[in-house]
Amino acid sequence: MKLINKSAFDGRPDCVLLDLDNTLYDYTLPHAAGQAAARDYAGSQLSIDADTFDTAFNVSRQELKHRLGATASSHSRLLYYQRTIERVGLATQPFAALQMEQAYWSAFLSEAVLFEDVLEFLDDLRIAGVPVVIVTDLTAQIQHRKLLYFGLHRYADWMVTSEEVKADKPAPEAFELALAKLGGIEGRIWMVGDNAERDVLGAREAVGALTLQKLHNGVAEGTGRCQPDATFTRFSDLRRFFASL
Amino acid sequence: MRELGRDPIFLGGLAVRLAQLALFAPVIQEVWFAPFLARFVEAPGMAPWSDFLASGGDARAFPYGFLYILAYGPGAAIGELLAGERGVALSLSVTTLVIDIGLYLALSRLARREERRISLAAYWLSPITLYVGYFHGQLDVFPVLLLTAGFLFLRNHHARWAAYPMGLAVAAKASMIVALPFVVVYLLGQARLKAKLPAFGLATIFVIAALMLPSYSLEGFRTMVLGTPELTKITQLAVPYGGGLFLFIFPAAYFALLFTAWRVRRMNFEALVAFVAAAFLLLYCLTPASPGWALWFTPFLAVHLARSHAPRAKLLYIGFSLAFVVLHLMISQGAELRLAPGLGELNLAGLDIQVSGAALSSWLLSALVLVGGVLLAQTLRERIFSGIFHRATRKPIIVNIAGDSGAGKDTLSDLIVDMLGPAAATEVSGDDYHIWDRHKPMWQALTHLNPKANHLDRLTEDVRELARGRPVRARHYDHSVGRMTKPLSIPAADTVVVSGLHALYPRALIELSDLRIFLDMDEDLRRFLKVRRDVTQRGHPLEKVISSLDRRAPDRERFILPQRERATLILSLEPRRARDIADVETAPEQLELRLRVQSKRSEDFARLSEILVAVCGVFLVEKRWQDGGVELLIEGHPTAREVANAARHIAGDFKDFLSLSPVWHDGANGLLQLMILEQFSRLVAIRGGY
């Protein structure tokens, strides 16, 4: 646990905003498994070889992100696969697109494992009476499934997905809606997330949150305006820090 | 590796090891191992033991084979280059440290995630490992790493791959063979692993033979390695038996332990690790063991300690470890200060005073053996005899599936076998106990649904025998010709699935069962499926099937439906749209079905429901009745992959019973599998005592 802005942590938070993907679990492996499952489906059912699939997928993803901007639907696997199939020249194939989306999330969930001590940390917050809101990009349907899958719904009181608001983080609406759902919170707000821009900068500018960045392989610590108030690599460290306050 | 850099247990243990390495030069390394390796490095050859003896070396210097030379030789060569024989001696500790880190990593994978930290601390910070490796200077960490690597493969069911490191471990140090019979019993006891035993056995023997036999021809090897006095230690603790005979204590106790494992038969992986820890602990306690032998049980005992709920187990271990170090500081060779060898050997030999006519070390040894014995008993009691797996598998699980003809009993039975594997489950069909062949005249008077038309006593007796773990012989009803075959053997198995029209009819049969299921298919759907099956698969005329259904209706009311009340779980498949089954030509696989599950046990299906919704994407409604019953209505068509993923979350302690390659189904069949799996998981938890 590294406290960069030590003096700001002068007591326990009045609420905690939590990012979900790549903060509470490592996104890399499940994503790779999901993508491999979709690629396999494309190969076996549509005779699209792996290289063609990857190329078409990357272009489709860029195209959708460009067209939709930072919105929830810009993360939609269904749209990515629909467009990938279209780009390969097979026009719109609803059955295959749905199947590939299904294959992706099925493989994704089967590989996804919460980081150690995540549930214990959430339980500490519950016992301390600190409300928790999951603030996450992506579409609501899959985020609800993830909450149930991980059992997070037993600990987190609320969730805000970017589908509920105009735009993805770091736009302020998701953070503001999170606090509004709690009935308005005045006091210390913590934002725990992995992304320096979306989570750290976003929450600080939107609601003045103290920001704690979760670091692990592939996550770069924020610098400059995106520098967090603290960083940690293990939730056990965060638990100890929380208990010490 | 980056994780290691942030791991306080690892860093703490590493700091102590590095300090020891800088401070202490173990005497046995200086006197025995280093001269041998120095000689080998100077004049490498294919017969290093003979060369060493020819150069006037001591026959006790290096009782190890080629693998040890392979492991410690490169370090020794670098040490020799840098600082001559003292460099070789230092290289031994450095190589030991490198191997030790490998063992730390292997152990971190062997222990379950939630138990990892305690396991690692119990090994890495143990006074035993610190003393043996870096003060006394034994090299036993090497074969223990190989053995642990074998266990890692075994835990992932790669028996053949496990054989290679395990064979290497034995080839490196013959004593590692103590663990192998337990591995054989483990593989034999689990139906799903049994088939892997020959591959494991052959590969192990091959590795040991390939590495040992070529060396055997070398006289120096026979003298120094096979002739080591260490081998005679296993018979040194002996009781005079009279007539000049002796009872050897360790071999007797070891075979008693092995026999216990054999009687336990179905042990899970944790029990295997506990048995191996116990066997090595026994070896240490019942022989005048070298200190290095304590390293053989330490990692395996550490895994047990992390799982143990008894604080006294950890206290015993701490007490044992400290007494061990004090004892060996008194009686075993110690170390010199690396930078001031002139000060002489550091040890506590001076403390070994006479107390009540015997040396203090003997009193300490007695206490050590006593504590070791208690630790061993505690390990076996907690991990084996109180273990959920053992308690849950003392007798086979009996599943009774009742329901009307065409309700899907055989399908459900097959779905269960697909989960458990054919070696672990056996099927008993009520159809095989019809009294008469199809063409016999008595069927004009009675329907199959009438209990009098079936040998229900024989069925009950056969299930009782299977519940005792014994195979039975029964005739099989061949639907294609309507005749009973000659009696066939039904093998005993861990799970017995009894399906039939009367599986929940005779009270004695119900009392044998652990899981009572009634298949209560929607009547219109049942008639639809039965007509399709009897006409298309069994070749009966359509009119006959319809009239048979009508003729059976009164017996169905009288004998079949009342069995619902005796079931603990009622599963009903029904069409989502009634119109789908109006046309008999509709293919069954095109039907959209939903599953209605009724449980009378007031069970909490919350987690199951969440997993089904989150993983399988189904629509699910739960209703609770005043009498405590629960009903789930489940609609959806999960893929087989989703069912497999959900199963991982639902299986709980039942995961050890599942086939190594379970066949999961999609749609309603997959949902049925998950419901049964959930019931199995509850059953095992109840049998296990919580």
Chain-wise SSE layout:
The complex is a heterodimer of chains A (245) and B (690).
Chain A: E1 2-3, E2 15-18, H1 28-46, H2 50-68, H3 77-90, H4 94-111, H5 118-127, E3 132-136, H6 140-150, E4 158-161, H7 173-181, E5 189-193, H8 196-207, E6 210-214, E7 230-232, H9 235-244
Parallel strand pairs in A: 2-3, 2-5, 3-4, 5-6, 6-7
Antiparallel strand pairs in A: 1-7
Helix pairs in contact in A: 1-4, 2-3, 3-4, 5-9, 7-8
Chain B: H1 8-23, E1 24-26, H2 27-42, H3 48-54, H4 66-110, H5 116-124, H6 127-136, H7 141-155, H8 159-172, H9 180-189, H10 191-194, H11 197-216, H12 219-226, E2 238-242, E3 245-248, H13 249-264, H14 269-285, H15 294-307, H16 311-331, E4 335-337, E5 345-346, E6 354-355, E7 358-359, H17 360-385, H18 388-392, E8 397-403, H19 409-420, E9 425-429, H20 456-467, E10 472-474, E11 477-478, E12 483-484, E13 488-490, E14 495-500, H21 507-512, E15 515-519, H22 523-537, H23 542-560, E16 569-575, E17 593-599, H24 606-616, E18 619-624, E19 630-635, H25 640-650, H26 667-688
Helix pairs in contact in B: 1-5, 2-4, 3-12, 4-5, 4-7, 5-15, 7-8, 8-11, 9-13, 13-14, 14-15, 14-17, 16-17, 19-26, 22-23, 24-25, 25-26
Describe the structure.
The complex is a heterodimer of chains A (245) and B (690). Chain A has helices spanning 28-46, 50-68, 77-90, 94-111, 118-127, 140-150, 173-181, 196-207, 235-244; strands spanning 2-3, 15-18, 132-136, 158-161, 189-193, 210-214, 230-232. Chain A is an alpha/beta fold. Chain A folds into 2 domains: 2-26 and 113-244, 3-Layer(aba) Sandwich (Rossmann fold); 29-111. Chain A has a 7-stranded mixed sheet, with helices on both faces. In chain A, strand 3, helix 6 (140-150) and strand 4 (158-161) form a beta-alpha-beta unit. The longest helix of chain A is centred in the first third of the chain and has 19 residues, at 28-46. Chain B folds into 2 domains: 4-386, no CATH class; 392-688, P-loop containing nucleotide triphosphate hydrolases (Rossmann fold), CATH 3.40.50.300. Helices cover 55% and strands 12% of the residues of chain B. Chain B has 26 helices and 19 strands. An 8-stranded mixed sheet of chain B has the order 9-14-8-15-16-17-19-18, sandwiched between helices. The two termini of chain B are 39 Å apart. The model of chain B has no long low-confidence stretch (mean pLDDT 88). Classes of the chains: A alpha/beta (245), B alpha+beta (690).
